[in-house]
Amino acid sequence: MLLEEHENQLVMRASGRDHEAFTELYRLYNERIYRYVRLKLGSPTDAEDITSVVFCNAWRTIDHFAPHRDTSFAAWLFRIAHHAIIDRYRRFRETVSLNNEQNQPAALAVQPGPEAQIERQIEIDELYAALELLTPEQREVVLLRFVEGLSAREVGQIMGKQEGAVRGMQFRAIESLRRALARGAEAAQ
Amino acid sequence: MSPKLDRTQQLNEILDEAENSPGALQSAAQRIQTHDPELASDLRLIAALRNVAPARPEMETARLAIGQRLTREILAESGGGAEPASLRTLHLSEPPMPEVTATNALAPSLAARASIIIRPVARWARQRKRAVISIAVAAAILLAVGVTLSMASVDSLPGSPLYGLKLSEESFLLALPLGPDAHAQVLSMVAMRRLHEAQAEAQAHHDAEAQSLLNQYNQDMIQLITLAASVNAHDGDSSAITAQISQLVLTQDSILRSSTTMGDSLFQQALSASAATVQQTLQQQHIALPNGNAQNNDKGRSPQPTATATATPTPSPQATPTPPGVSGSHGHGHHHGGGGSNNQ
Q1: Number of Cβ pairs closer than 8 Å across A and B?
Q2: How large is the ipTM?
Q3: Whether pTM exceeds 0.80
Q4: Cα B286 to Cα B232: distance, rounded to the nearest angstrom
Q5: Which of residues 48-77 of A touch B (CB under 8 A)?
């Protein structure tokens, strides 16, 4: 609660155009937003670019955000990131169809990996490759719920879904990811 | 209740519990290991996912670039004139402050003061003194890097009046008597800059400049690889250096894919040639890069004299579906207007 209160104070100060408060918020969330974007786009350069857009937009519009108004600052920021990525893809839709809902990946064969594969440290590029094998919705749930640790409610707010729907997707998403990682590990051998 | 439904519910409950207690995932995994090893695996995987992070050099580079763009954005709002006094203390490009915890959330300034008050005692043993000196030197270097790099010259390109300043800063940092890892970090930063400058020049159709910058990038990479080889030759651990090289190779690979999508064949050829040079040097120096799936077990050494690095010089455009132009702006005066939406 103390953390939440501290963050709310920072948000209120930043809404009043307090640079230092916004810097503090930037420091708190920079790595998380970068990681989220990086895992969605794969390229460090693109992640850098979009993360900049996210924080610039957040600075411009932070006065529209009201703490305690049914959404957390984290969810608000991730939602900006989510939409920044969608906007970027939308502009290049003719040539890129990464987030095309119709392009569902082929069902993954059940290949439960050995324990060692699950327990070892996962590298970011390895995770990116595995996420590519998931449906866009599963990818979003894995990133926001599991990697970023947001609540099911917050993930629902970002994805425009009900909390219950997110909860329903969790299990299938993590199962698919486990198989995708095992598949990637097998391919690498 | 079906086993799958039961598992879904169980996972939900454990995840809810983990929101308040981060160790809950691991302890739940241990608890259910015998009767449901598959769900236990999923829980361990979720715990591992929370630790996934970009490599340190990549994060540092990103922090610098993002911090500078954000500073520009804030400055632009302030009228674009003189830097406001409060902004001078922002240092958006600097590493993050220690995480605010429940215990220090209300007194960050007190914590900062306390760290200044605590001084090393003169009677400390030599080893501790050395450690303090090392930390002080590291802090000074970090400060120097942070301060100098946060100057406005970082995004400048050849031909800009600020570019000379940028090169002077780099020369200064490269001339510092640093250890191999810190020196590699500076070299890596310089190489990364050349790479992005080359990309920006190519996008502006300044092909000769782009080629020249790529040549400099090659030189920096050769120096980095040679440095790693030299560390290996002295039985040292070159894994931090090879991680930096690996990051650069990945970035180069990503830019190459982007230029392929953009149809910039001249720059694409130059990048491919550069990647081939890097690969050749890696092979000649017997340096293996961490392959992203496992840690380099031999401290950066190639297991065999003919070992090759993991990144390929001729990537497939389909490998990473990077939208054309997404990677194109990277600072250099581009304005990122309206990229996202403020959804409330």
Answers
A1: 244
A2: 0.79
A3: no
A4: 10
A5: 48-61, 64-65, 69, 71, 76
